[in-house]
């Protein structure tokens, strides 16, 4: 058996919070818009007329437990 041991030299990169903040805001806004269309649009409120958005997100609405029909 060998007695040679090595210590791996791994440097973990750091990501400054200031660089992440705009992306965090963007994805939170995007998620909010998607959640709005899945949960509320063409339910209690309706931005476009018709049933198109409701039909596109209908399965997601049921999957997430939002009331539908
Ligand atoms: Zn439904």
Low-confidence regions: none
Strand content: under 5%
Distinct small molecules bound, one entry per kind: zinc ion
The largest sheet is: none
On the 0-100 scale, what is the average pLDDT? 86
Structural class computed from helices and strand pairing: mainly alpha
* Overall number of strands: 0
Give the % helix. Answer: 40-55%
Globally, the shape reads elongated
State the separation between the terminal residues, measured CA to CA: 70 Å
Count of helical stretches = 3
Written as H for each helix and E for each strand, in order along the chain, the element string is: HHH
Q: Rounded to an integer, what's the Rg over CA atoms?
A: 23 Å
Q: How does the SSE layout of this entry go?
A:
Elements: H1 17-39, H2 52-56, H3 58-63
The structure holds zinc ion.
Residues 58, 62, 68-69 line the site of zinc ion.
List keywords for this structure.
69 residues, mainly alpha, 0% strand, binds zinc ion
